Amino acid sequence: MISIKSVTAATSVLSDLDMEQLRQDSDKLLVAAPAIPAHDAQRKGRYRRHGDLFIGGPYPWPQYCTAARMKGVALVVWQLVHHQVRMTRKPEVTLPRNLLTAVGISRNAKARALRDLEKVGLIQVRCERGRAARITLVPLPNGSSASS
Q1: What is the dotted CATH code of the domain comprising 61-137?
Q2: This prediction's pTM
Q3: Which residue would you say has higher pLDDT here, 73 or 24?
Q4: Are the C-beta atoms of residues 78 and 122 closer than 8 Å to each other?
């Protein structure tokens, strides 16, 4: 609880301060900010590449459980699709070969996983002859539970 004495003591301390002196002191504290190089200014707000690669969530729990129950590398492929959607900020993505080889997934294993994930309804795959498969994540309807 604040007493009247403490309030009057605080106001008397504030009235004793020289406001002009405070302004002059604050001007001495201001330092010019260094100029941002042109190449950094262009990249501002964009994803900046760091030395270490990463992959992370959050993942929708019902969909994660469904993918985890599947055989083979379906869970890893589903996580990589999520990763690509987040990194590219596009709803339809491809899985680059270098990303798959980094985690040890072959072309055939990728094809099987995409087929299985599409069969259970976690993704939609659009294939065109001579082109990479275009993958879209499919959200589960509200209120539904994970099933395999």
Answers
A1: 1.10.10.10
A2: 0.61
A3: 73
A4: yes
What are the CA-CA distances from residue 14 to residues 1, 10, 26, 28 (Å)?
21, 6, 17, 21
Domain boundaries along the sequence of the chain? 61-137
Cα separation, 108 vs 48, whole angstroms: 32
Rounded to whole angstroms, the Cα distance separating 86 from 84 reads: 5
**Cβ distance 81 to 123 under 8 Å?**
yes
92-120: string of b/e by CB count within 10 Å (b at 16+)?
ebebeeebbeeeebeeebbebbbebbbeb
Beta carbons within 8 Å of 60's beta carbon, 6+ residues apart: 139, 140
What's at 34, amino acid-wise?
A: P
